[in-house]
């Protein structure tokens, strides 16, 4: 017996294999090993499963924009899923497959089906994707008895209106790099159902993160085609501290290609900003400004807190936008794409410390999935940029939505009128605390701060917290931040004060890319105030995690231990 259904072809092809399905979205970056295809996200139901050669069915991607880079690596190294089946709008994984097809002439099919069909997938063990057709089986299908229905080729939609500048890029008048970029943009515009393209004023590149040989190969191909950015372009945190990775003991086989990848983007004209918090730079966009940003926390901050307009652009589409200055006029670039469809009613517990914000972001992101939420109940909280940065990073880690609204705080919240409501109470916050605290032991060997990158105010607060304190010799304390913030904090004296306590500052890179020896090999448990890193660290670096406020992190740095019970305000 079999079930035959039809969906929307996102990337054409024909493949079959054992069906591997889950009802929870999966971030390939931080959630899947790019070398093996094994799921490493310890909070995901597929943890430990190999994706290689199987038909992966998930509602959508989620989390990091770098998932496209991980999928590209897997396709080129032979450990990718045979096909991907989705039921929600999804651009990150789709773009990875499109780049593999358009640039490297290798790919896998990606198909979007109706939710009713997706809900029945767990009844079957095997699947075949062939063009727009999905066939589900209880027993392994015999390939040569199945009709060949796949339609290979482009999913470009010729109804998209192209301006003269778009036509010039497509014709190759501005060189091969811009031509390839425009071809990819046109295919993604069709997936977005955009009717036209638009100008953007700036771009933030997340594709400068080294996910493996394919990421460097792609960037060097562009530089070989004389690629040059056409709008101001900043670079995300890269995979190493570019100026000091050798001194830090980073292995040559990571440091050299990661640094070369950064050099490739610099050669295209990008700025050496190297920060995952570009909203802290002087070049941050203003309300209503149309930009093309990647990096999940940066996207939700730009959209939600600043009120700038960007899609959650996948790695590699970011450089395509930079090379052309053009982006699909769709999604969050339009008023309709910014509307909240879900209201989350929350209550801020009495006495809550700064750990509340990433906990709440984690809860909200887990609930909303692809829906943009309006969060009510925080009108009197006086949340500032650092609180919203921590909230947004945790939110973006587990959500696919590109933004949020908070009543009384974010600039577009008063315009929202969602009909459906969900309550998030103390029980949900406590559950999130339990999820993020994975270490069995109270002993702490490393305090990890700066995910996303520290702001100048956070540097000042850290300097105050460590004043006249003595760090345990058994605990390392490491802060990551951008070069601009590090320079400003140095001038203000905050860096010297923190270093006197024993803090090590690392620039250019961020915790989602750091490993040994910056993380001492002997460390078994780390502590962080980042909901984002608390989620990713167990899978990325194989350590147990304790999560808490910044003040609790400094207490742990001094004592070498942390409390295993939730804070009093959660009890």
UniProtKB/TrEMBL annotation:
Domain Phosphomevalonate dehydratase small subunit-like: 26-110
A UniProt-annotated Pfam family: AcnX_swivel_put
Molecular function via GO: lyase activity
Keyword Disulfide bond (UniProt): no
Residues annotated as domain Phosphomevalonate dehydratase large subunit-like: 161-555
Superkingdom of the source species: Bacteria
Keywords: Iron, Lyase
Gene3D superfamilies for the chain: Phosphohistidine domain
Tagged with keyword Transferase: no
Name of the protein in its database record: 2-methyl-cis-aconitate hydratase
């Amino acid at each position: 017996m079999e079930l035959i259904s039809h969906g929307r072809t996102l990337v054409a092809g024909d493949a079959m294999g054992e069906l591997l399905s889950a009802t929870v979205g999966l971030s390939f970056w931080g959630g899947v090993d790019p070398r093996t295809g094994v799921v490493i996200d310890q909070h995901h139901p597929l943890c430990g499963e190999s994706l290689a050669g199987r038909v992966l069915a998930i509602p959508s991607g989620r989390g990091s924009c770098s998932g496209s880079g991980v999928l590209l690596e897997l396709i080129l190294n032979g450990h990718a899923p045979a096909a991907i089946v989705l039921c929600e709008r999804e651009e990150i994984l789709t773009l990875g497959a499109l780049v593999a097809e358009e640039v490297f002439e290798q790919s896998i099919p990606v198909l979007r089906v109706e939710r009713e069909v997706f809900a029945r997938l767990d009844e079957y063990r095997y699947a075949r994707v062939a063009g727009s057709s999905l066939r589900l089986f209880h027993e392994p299908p015999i390939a040569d008895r199945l009709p060949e229905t796949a339609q290979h080729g482009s999913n470009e939609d010729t109804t998209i209106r192209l301006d003269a500048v778009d036509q010039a890029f497509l014709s190759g008048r501005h060189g091969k790099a811009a031509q390839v970029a425009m071809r990819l943009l046109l295919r993604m515009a069709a997936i977005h159902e955009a009717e036209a393209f638009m100008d953007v004023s700036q771009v933030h590149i997340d594709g400068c993160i080294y996910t493996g040989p394919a990421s460097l190969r792609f960037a060097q191909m562009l530089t070989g085609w004389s690629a040059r950015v056409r709008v101001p372009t900043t670079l995300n945190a890269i995979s190493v501290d570019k100026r000091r990775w050798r001194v830090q003991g980073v292995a040559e086989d990571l440091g050299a290609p990661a640094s070369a990848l950064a050099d490739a983007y610099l050669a295209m004209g990008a700025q050496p900003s190297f920060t995952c918090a570009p909203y802290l730079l002087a070049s941050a966009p203003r309300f209503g400004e149309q930009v093309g940003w990647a990096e999940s926390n940066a996207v939700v901050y730009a959209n939600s807190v600043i009120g700038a307009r960007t899609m959650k652009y996948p790695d590699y589409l970011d450089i395509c936008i930079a090379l052309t200055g053009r982006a699909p006029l769709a999604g969050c670039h339009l008023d309709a794409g910014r509307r909240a469809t879900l209201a989350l009613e929350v209550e801020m517990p009495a006495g809550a410390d700064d750990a509340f914000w990433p906990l709440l972001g984690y809860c909200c992101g887990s609930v909303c999935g692809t829906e943009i939420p309006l969060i009510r109940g925080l009108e009197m909280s006086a949340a500032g940029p650092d609180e919203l940065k921590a909230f947004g990073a945790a939110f973006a880690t587990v959500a696919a939505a590109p933004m949020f609204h908070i009543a009384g705080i974010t600039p577009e919240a008063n315009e929202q009128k969602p009909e459906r409501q969900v309550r998030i109470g103390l029980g949900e916050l406590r559950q999130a605390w339990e999820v993020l605290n994975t270490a069995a032991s109270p002993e702490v060997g490393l305090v990890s701060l700066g995910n996303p990158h520290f702001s100048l105010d956070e540097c000042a607060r850290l300097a105050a917290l460590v004043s006249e304190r003595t760090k345990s010799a058994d605990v390392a304390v490491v802060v990551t931040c951008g070069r601009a913030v590090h320079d400003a904090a140095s001038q203000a004296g905050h860096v010297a004060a923190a270093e006197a306590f024993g803090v090590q500052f690392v620039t250019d890179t961020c915790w989602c890319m750091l490993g040994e020896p910056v993380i001492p090999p002997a460390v078994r448990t780390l502590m962080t105030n980042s909901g984002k890193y608390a989620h990713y660290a167990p899978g990325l670096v194989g350590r147990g995690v304790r999560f808490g406020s910044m003040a609790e992190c400094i207490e742990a740095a001094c004592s070498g231990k942390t409390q295993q019970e939730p804070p009093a305000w959660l009890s």
